[in-house]
Amino acid sequence: MCGAAAGPVIPQQRGVRDHARGEVLHRHARLTKNGRPIFCRPSRAEIEGSVIPRQGPGSDGKVIYSTREDAEAAARELESLGSRPLRSYLCGRSRGGHFHLTTDHAREAAARAAHLPLHLRIPQQRGPMSA
User: Fold this and answer.
1) What pLDDT does residue 56 have?
2) Which of 26, 35, 60, 77 stands 20 to 30 A from 19 (CA)?
3) Cα distance between residue 98 and residue 59, in whole Å
4) What is the pTM of this model?
5) Residue 9, phi then psi, degrees to nearest 5
6) What is the pLDDT of residues 89-110, one digit of tens each?
7) Who's near 25: CB < 8 A, 6+ residues apart?
């Protein structure tokens, strides 16, 4: 056995930081026949400009989850691995209905604010507008 690999070769996946996050995707994401997660991308008609884009470019390249439950389960697991707070949403590009995850900025801001003393959490009234 000269130079043989010790175990199976795992294909490199874009956007996966570590093995634990990769396992979460393999459990919950929609997979190809080869076992890789499927990513959202514009249709040929959207690319050619013959139809109006159904979704903004922010969803391009995001992992596809078949159901909201799969997306929510993945979000909770990713958060337990140190991810920022995530929420699922229905992709506007999907005819059959698939879901993506996005960071939940409002929930994240509320979590940060919860650690502040009360006098810093209360919104301050703004003074009169100067001309």
Assistant:
1) 61
2) 60
3) 12
4) 0.61
5) -85, 125
6) 888 777 778 999 988 666 666 6
7) 13, 16, 37, 63, 74
